[in-house]
Automatic annotation (TrEMBL):
It catalyses: acetate + ATP + CoA = acetyl-CoA + AMP + diphosphate. This is Acetyl-coenzyme A synthetase. Its EC number is 6.2.1.1. Keywords: ATP-binding, Ligase, Lipid metabolism, Nucleotide-binding. Residues 111-498 form the AMP-dependent synthetase/ligase domain. The keyword Protein biosynthesis does not apply. It is an enzyme of class 6 (ligase). GO terms for molecular function: acetate-CoA ligase activity; AMP binding; ATP binding. InterPro entries: Ac_CoA_lig, ACAS_N, AMP-bd_C_sf, AMP-binding_CS, AMP-dep_synth/lig_dom, ANL_N_sf.
Length: 636
């Protein structure tokens, strides 16, 4: 079983005290101490009487419409300007932004940069094989995106269709996402480590007629038979008419009537592809994420609001500037890959790294070797990987030149103090602010992070701290009452809508309302708990439900059971190597006679609370509990 890292209030208080006293470490200063909001954020130049970061944040929340309208006009290219800034009502779960406006996301990510700087590098593909990186300029990426868009159109993919992408992180995967955006189709990227059952379930729910994949995946020196997984999946997906297969390796794979060789077909297409004029609220993508129970949820993100929010947070949380190289090591199968490998950096005309490998391949120096070779300025990763690397020792980091780094980001789970300190001191040589960014698939982009802040503002280890512009967090007590003072813990909610929010769950708006809007009427409920310090900073304490975070990915108990327990005979384990270091294996799980896993018993074992295992009379085989208890003791 996986043991989540829980942060107690005591720990929070201690780290805050440390944060204040050790000012040389945490109060990271950069240049001037007086801070001009218009110079920092040109979009805010017209906001009257606003100076300083906190004033700008106050303005973004109290004059939300003015704020978002100004930012949307300046950051995005519109085919037709929007008429209404927002039409939102959290009590109804209604969220609409920039209606009346038309735009194309791929034009915002590609064409406009091709006009100004065609030869700027858009993608650096850090292939699994170290030292064999490949660069794509904006001109080249636009060209392959257009070819792909034309190909999909020729094969009948229309505005409103949904294309499933089952590919590792690579340029053709990014181009596939952008090609969908270009022709107005939605994409549904499925993490290429998921099993054929998980893939099939997502294809069926999305009703995709088209799947894009690769012959084989290469990760950590190992080959995965991705095309074979697709073949197995589509057997139970009657909607699938066609599968496009890119060649990641030389290996030829079995083809059926519905398969097409992607690169060969692309060569037949024109390099110009007319972009579809999309409404702000048309669907951009679905992304499935695990719920605590039942089917995965296909969260729906739309065009303008999502792109704007991804771009703005990328620019200001990480301090991204033109010419920087942004290294987000998340797989594109997760929301982090969507927002901070693809959409945010490309909307900003940035250079983004596509990381195909693992943190320990071919050795534990992989990240830092890459930082040196590619001159990465902002590095964004998950605490699990950091904790794993700490175990291998500092020499793997120090071997490489990390002087290009300016900001270090963390996402996916709480970052414990030890990992934070190591990241800051060893990786960043104490020079680089560590931004612990809190957000979710549902929020579209980062909602709470230490940056942006004024240059001399403190950063407290292990705390996400400050709400981003336009974000107004709220904490609720167990009775559902709003907690109004500081130094309190509660259920983390959002009191105001923002453009990056998910709009619904595909095919299940009722579940969307029940999960996020009904628990605390008038608020968006995140599912996480948080503590608000005396100073008003936020620290996330973890999920309030059954969902677990593994190496920065949200995984429900269902997926773990699927991969680790039921399918342990298959190769999928390699994609979950990070799960393994914190997983207790069991030959069997305690089940009821009707076959349901007794999760409450597992939870008690993990909490070492053996005296209150509760009613075990429905257990099929009591010996299974004993085995689990013994296995857990060994793990401790
Ligand atoms: C957790 C990942 C603590 C949280 C972007 C959230 C975090 C879930 C942090 C979303 C953080 C994410 N500190 N916990 N900085 N960032 N989480 O949808 O429980 O894969 O609800 O999105 O990850 O996971 P998801």
């Amino acid at each position: 079983m996986w043991l989540p890292c829980r942060c107690t209030t005591k720990y929070v208080a201690a780290s805050i005290r440390r944060g204040v006293s050790a000012s040389s470490l945490h109060a990271l200063r950069r240049g001037r101490s007086s801070w001009n909001s218009a110079a920092f954020m040109p979009e805010s130049a017209g906001f009257e009487g606003v100076s300083g970061r906190d004033a700008l944040h106050d303005y973004s929340v109290s004059h939300s419409e003015n704020f978002w309208a100004a930012v949307a006009r300046q950051r995005l290219n519109w085919i037709r300007p929007f008429e209404a800034v927002q039409d939102c009502d959290l009590s109804q779960g209604r969220i609409k932004w920039f209606e009346g406006g038309k735009l194309n996301v791929s034009v915002n990510c590609l064409d406009r940069h091709v006009h100004t700087c065609p030869e700027r590098v858009a993608l650096i593909w850090e292939r699994d094989e170290r030292g064999s990186e490949v660069r794509y300029t904006y001109r080249e990426l636009l060209e392959i995106t257009c070819r792909l868009g034309n190909l999909l159109r020729r094969h009948g993919v229309k505005k409103g269709d949904c294309v499933t992408i089952y590919m590792p992180t690579c340029p053709l995967a990014v181009a596939s996402m952008l090609a969908c955006a270009r022709i107005g189709a939605a994409h549904n990227v499925v993490f290429a480590g998921f099993s054929s059952e998980a893939l099939a379930e997502r294809i069926r729910d999305a009703q995709s007629s088209t799947v894009i994949t690769v012959n084989q995946g290469v990760r950590g020196g190992k080959i995965t038979e991705l095309k074979r997984t697709v073949d197995a999946a589509v057997q139970s997906c009657p909607t699938v008419r066609q599968v496009f297969v890119a060649m990641r390796t030389e290996k030829r794979v079995e083809v059926t009537d519905r398969d097409f060789a992607l690169e060969e077909e692309m060569l037949k297409e024109d390099v110009v592809c007319e972009p579809a004029a999309m409404d702000s609220e048309d669907v951009l993508f679905l992304l499935y994420t695990s719920g605590s129970t039942g089917k995965p949820k296909g969260l729906v993100h739309t065009q303008a609001g999502y792109l704007l929010y991804a771009a703005l947070t990328h620019r200001y949380v990480f301090g991204y500037h033109d010419g920087d190289v942004f290294g987000c090591v998340a797989d594109i199968g997760w929301i982090t890959g969507h927002s901070y490998t693809v959409y945010g950096p490309l909307a900003n005309g940035g250079t983004t790294v596509l990381f195909e490998s693992t943190p320990v391949y071919p050795d534990p120096g992989r990240y830092w070797d890459m930082v040196e070779r590619l001159r990465i300025n902002q590095f964004y990763g998950a605490p699990t990987a950091i904790r794993l690397l700490i175990r291998y020792g500092d020499q793997w980091v120090k071997k490489y030149d990390r002087s290009s780094l300016t900001t270090l980001g963390s996402v996916g789970e709480p970052i414990n103090t030890e990992a934070w300190e190591w990241y800051n001191r060893v990786v960043g040589e104490g020079r680089c602010p560590v931004v612990d960014t809190w957000w979710q698939t549902e929020t579209g982009g980062i909602c709470i992070a230490p940056k942006p802040s004024e240059p001399d503002a403190e950063i407290v280890p292990g705390m996400a701290m400050r709400p981003f512009f336009g974000i107004k967090p709220a904490l609720m007590d167990t009775e559902g009452k709003l907690l109004t003072s500081n130094n309190e813990s509660g259920a983390l909610c959002m009191a105001q809508p923002w453009p990056g929010m998910a709009r619904t769950i595909h095919n299940n708006h009722q579940r969307f309302l029940e999960t996020y809007f009904q628990p605390y009427p008038g608020y968006f409920f995140t599912g996480d708990g948080a503590y608000r310090s005396q100073e008003g900073y936020y620290q996330i304490t973890g999920r309030l439900d059954d969902v677990i975070n593994v190496s920065g990915h949200r995984i429900g108990t269902a997926e773990i059971e699927d991969v680790v327990v039921i399918r342990s005979d298959e190769a999928h384990l390699s994609d979950f190597i990070l799960i393994i270091s914190v997983t207790q294996f069991a030959k069997r799980l305690p089940k009821t006679r009707s076959g349901k896993i007794m999760r409450r018993v597992l939870r008690k074992v993990v909490d070492c609370d053996l005296d209150s295992l509760g009613d075990l009379s429905t257990l099929d085989d009591p010996a299974a509990v004993q085995e689990i208890i013994e296995g857990h003791e060994k793990l401790l």
